[in-house]
Amino acid sequence: MLKTRLLTAAVLIPLFLAALFLLPEPFWSLLMLAGSLIGLWEWSKMASFKPAVRYLYVAAAGVAGVFFTFWRGPEYAYMQEYALYWSLIAAVVFWFVIIPPWLATRFQLRNVYLMMLTGWLLVLPLWQSLVSLRERSPWLLLGLMLLIWIADSAAYFSGKRFGKRKLAVNISPGKTWEGVLGALVVVSLYGLALCYFLDIPLWLIPALWLLTVLSIMGDLFESLIKRQGGLKDSGALLPGHGGILDRVDGLTSSLPIATFMIYLPLYYQAWMQSA
Asked: Domain coordinates of the chain in residue numbers?
């Protein structure tokens, strides 16, 4: 399994880096949209939507995504920013207000319309974050994604070596508090390196801790939905890794919040000017 995972990563990582740094913006947006739609398809299967509903559900998101991608021009810039703002606000409410009690109670949502909304809240803010952060700087986006990958790997290996106390035994039995601690330690070292080499204030490190905790929440939430649906993986697209959602579960929660944190000073400045 580990060999298969490494081989898949060895193929995907160079392709992803080439796309990140070389693709023109609309093509990057469409590529990330395609991945997001696959994630929504996996979500629709996890949620046990009927086949016809799955197609309509994913198609609606696809039409909206294509419209957003090509919705260009100075006259639309404000409306795009407005859409991004409310998408990020929705993500903040979703991950800070709704998901913690959902995980604590292991609530099983059965309403199909609310499951549709949940899938959109899970995937679409992530897509918008991938697009907007890349517009600001591909290196910024890569640095944030590296954070989650580093945290995930550190949690896995430290949990395997030292793990004794289960984090959420009824959701994901393999996760331990020692794994969480290992992730926070390695993320702190990553943050210190960034602060030293890029001359960033040390307040960055608590922000990275928050994003690490959020990534764990995203992982746990997807595990909960899979467990309630009787599934091991969200899909089988990536050998050794499962589906798209299995690979981006930590990003669904952390990247939109990181985007909100980055844009917050701009939103505050705009609000003060309009007040």
From this structure: 2-274
